[in-house]
User: Fold these one by one.
Assistant:
Number 1:
Amino acid sequence: MISALVMMNVRRDAINSTAQALLAIPGVAEVYSVTGEYDLLAVLHLARYEDLAEVVTERMLALEAIQRTQTMMAFKAYSREDLEQAWDIGVE
């Protein structure tokens, strides 16, 4: 599974509708409105790298309100659940 984060600048009047449209794209797991330089952040979970190219460069950029994107690939995921499981090893 490939995970990526896509940060987007979106027209101010279309943030909510763009977030909803992004959630309709297969592979987009979550969308957050955020503070700072970007307006939205999408979390992607995809099967193949080719899917990333299709989702970001074709599906997302087809949404006219998206003005700019920056994509970050995730190498490793850390979660609270993983940490708790590590402490439970050997405990009955």
Number 2:
Amino acid sequence: MNFSDVLKALNQASAFELYRMRAAIDRLLDEPRWVQAIHARLQIGLAIEYFDSQANTLRRGKVLELRRKQAVILDQNDGRRWLIAYAAINLDGTDVQIREQPRQGLGRNEVAIGDAVGFVDRNQQQRSGRIIRLNDKTVTLLCGQQQWRVAYAYLHRVMDTDTIEQNVLELECVMTFSGN
């Protein structure tokens, strides 16, 4: 499904039309056929991925309990238990990125909490940091010890150098020769 086209169409709808659409989608997701189809593929202890709509990213967890309409998941990152709708569980490994085509910068659906991004501040200084919160029109970034609120249009991707540095393995090779 091309989410960029869907988002374009939805952006032309009124708030009332969007509300009606959300109600219709909620009713569809509550239909027993969807719930049963997902429930049948789950089992206690299964490692899964689920979509966190607040952070706009996939998270990993383990199924602890199967309820009628939701599953209790132990989140791998924070160790907390979450009650997750079956529809949020990504059993087929679907790509969750919604790629918008904004004029400049990054779109709201193209970033997630924890992403490394950069921007140019008012003094034309290049800054980069990690996203710690997604707001409606801005993101909150942690740049060193300082927090910045930056509009999505001013963001660009940066290479995550911290991760690269953490994955470098230094090896020391010692060769010993014995004279025979």
Number 3:
Amino acid sequence: MAMTGTILAGGENRRIPLLKGYIEINGKRIIDRNIGVMKSLFEKVVISTNTPELYFYCGAPMIGDIAPQKGPLTGIFSVLTNVEDNAIFVAACDMPFLNERLIKYMVDKYNNSNSGANKQDAVIPVYEGNPQPLLGIYSKNILSVVEERLNKGLRKLKDMLTEISVLYIKEEEIKQIDPEGRSFLNINTIEDYERVISH
């Protein structure tokens, strides 16, 4: 099933005085590594951003928000509305350790779950007891739900999951591929950055 790889780079960077995608880990910008991972797995890769001038050099199509609310839910809505594929694989631009095997595993789960009668709207991993919606698969089936939530000013991605059909990937499955959960590390603060570079 065709799927578009999507990097969410629309964050407001309120808690860290750096452009998160530009942060270098092991000598490489996070966004550059993530685009490389996505391009190795998906034919089409896009960046969700409202500041395209920062990412022109990446050589990937960019999609800006089509709704006034900020946040990842708006980014996901905007990309789903604009791409041809029926589903997108989403990762945040500040996740430095995307795991190709885990992404492939999630895509296989999505494809298998949508081959029968019980179709899933999303595939979301669970780690440390919490859904991780910033590393997930979303289908166009959720567009009407998301639009309604945005119209009501409801921006929380996690809350939206309660209104759609989600296949959750259990923690024990994830740990077989990514034992330390490095896929879910993200950089929201200077402390996060220091923790990541010390790993």
Number 4:
Amino acid sequence: MLKHNILFICTGNSSRSILAEAIMNHLGPNRFAAYSAGSQPAGRVNIQALMCLERNQINTAGLRSKSWSEFAAPDAPTMDFVITVCDKAAGEVCPVWPGQPLTAHWGVEDPGHIGSTDEEKSKAFWDAFMKLHRRISILLSLPVDKLDRLSLKKELDQIGLA
């Protein structure tokens, strides 16, 4: 089975894309190599994102906020999939990825901007985690290597609505 590279991107690369990278590497390590990046990286990973991953026994080693320019460099891995996870409904500008990877938008509300109490923040990260976990699980259930490009694109778009 072919291993695919997948890049999750959003604006700050501090919460949602970090969660997605860690979840995919946890659930699908034999099928996908997941990465994350931001168009305007925050420079740090949100501590709530790390705590949410650790509560779910997902490895957080090596997670860092980084620019998507790292993945445009000549020596960077070639991406097969690029998924944006920013929330267009909140007026965020989602980055556009050049090249030939299959792309999709899986909008998730930024949990870093929800709630004022620790309990509200924790719930917001849990909700984002569960939404991404569900979508990644659906992707992992697809026969990716058996679908043609158009069918796979349609499936990716549908997952973003789940």
